[in-house]
Amino acid sequence: RVKLDYTRPFSDNSKLETGYQGRYAQNDQHYVLQNYQDNQWITNDEFTNKADYSRTIQALYATYSGKLLGIDYKLGLRGEYTNRLLNQETLNKDYRIHRFNIFPSAHFTKRFSRKEQLFASYSIRIERPRSWFIDPFKNYMDQYNVRMGNPALEPEYTGSYELGYKKTFNN
Predict the structure, then answer these.
(1) DSSP characters over 79-117
(2) Which of 37, 43, 76, 111 is the Cys-Cys partner for 105 at CB 3.0 to 4.6 Å?
(3) Residue 80: CB partners within 8 Å, gap ≥ 6?
(4) What are the pLDDT digits (tens) for 7-22?
(5) Which residue from 106, 101, 104 is spatially nearest to 156, judged by alpha carbons?
(6) The pTM is what?
(7) CA distance 12 to 7
(8) Around Cβ 123, how many Cβ atoms within 10 Å?
(9) What distance in Å separates the CA atoms of residue 34 and residue 91, rounded to the nearest whole number?
(10) What's 45's DSSP letter?
(11) Spatial distance between the Cα atoms of 156 and 85, rounded to a whole number of angstroms
(12) DSSP secondary structure string for all residues of 114-153
């Protein structure tokens, strides 16, 4: 994981924050089941799986914050490129995703006094499937539980909205 941040103040009330974040993950899933038979170990191909998973995420982001007409604000934009590869060696198939996403965000706060404020915010979140969620090979956990993923599984996007009022009391 690599992260670089830069902040540039423009005045007492505004600033620009920018940055880069890069992430790389690799997960090798190698399962071998062998049965002992006739004084030797024999690999059972029905229950043996070999898959290699890698994911690279590169992101550039910027937020601008300031104050206008008595309202504090922070506006942001994040551009993110994802390169995901599941090399399912047992099934002799590759499942690849190249995707570019844009994630906007906005936060607003209006202070009525030192003890009262109204705030609102919006952002988009992403939840990516883990490697075992997309591996289509059947993995037998025990005699009652079988796990099998879906390589076409997409990330989950959530729009997050918040509106609130905050009042601080003396004690």
Answers:
(1) EEEEEEEEEETTTTEEEEEEEEEEEEEEEEEEESSSSEE
(2) 76
(3) 57, 58, 59, 100, 101, 102, 103, 126
(4) 999 887 899 999 999 9
(5) 101
(6) 0.77
(7) 14
(8) 16
(9) 19
(10) G
(11) 18
(12) SSEEEEEEEEEEEEPPPHHHH--S-EESSSS-EE---TTP
Cα–Cα distance, 82 to 129 (Å, whole number): 13
The maximal CA–CA distance of the chain, rounded, in angstroms, is 84
Query: Mind listing the pLDDT tens digit for each residue in 68-104?
Result: 998 999 999 999 999 999 888 888 889 899 999 999 9
Residue of 106, 102, 104 lying closest to 74 (CA atoms): 106
In degrees and rounded to multiples of 5, residue 131 shows phi and psi of -60, -40
What is the residue type of 94? D
- With residues binned 3-state (H G I as helix, E B as strand, rest as coil), the percentages for the chain, rounded to 5, are 5, 70, 25
Residue 133 zone, left/alpha/beta (φ > 0; ψ -120 to 50; rest): alpha
